[in-house]
């Protein structure tokens, strides 16, 4: 099941970003999913679903946005490195 949402934006947004409205919506979905994943709000699997991407493609998107695919805080990373 999917839900359609309506979003009103000034026309200038699309030309400023050099994207069509459809491209803008796709990129916005990816950007939101990446941010929520980065904030550890959602899992990588759920983020990929929201973005409309496979897990592999979502991991590539993480690289584009310079977000690590690993969700460790500094303490967890130290524990992993010490093992």
Briefly say what this structure is.
The chain is mainly alpha-helical.
Key features of this structure:
elongated; 61% helix; Arc Repressor Mutant, subunit A; 83 residues; mainly alpha
Describe this structure in words.
The protein is mainly α and 83 residues long. The protein has a single domain (18-82), classed as Arc Repressor Mutant, subunit A (Orthogonal Bundle), CATH 1.10.10. 61% of the residues lie in helices and 0% in strands. The chain has 5 helices and no strands. The chain has helices at residues 12-17, 21-38, 44-51, 55-64, 74-82. 12% of the residues are buried. The mean pLDDT is 89.
Radius of gyration: 16 Å
Helix content: 55-70%
How far do the termini sit from each other? Answer: 43 Å
How many beta-strand runs?
0
Query: What does the largest sheet look like?
Result: none
Q: How would you state the average pLDDT, rounded?
A: 89
CATH class: Mainly Alpha
Low-confidence stretches: none
The CATH topology label is Arc Repressor Mutant, subunit A
Portion of residues in beta strands equals under 5%
Order of helices and strands: HHHHH
The count of helical stretches stands at: 5
Structural domain tally: 1
Class derived from helix and strand content? mainly alpha
Shape: elongated
CATH-level-2 architecture: Orthogonal Bundle
List the helices and strands and how they pair.
Blueprint: H1 12-17, H2 21-38, H3 44-51, H4 55-64, H5 74-82
Helix pairs in contact: 2-3, 3-4
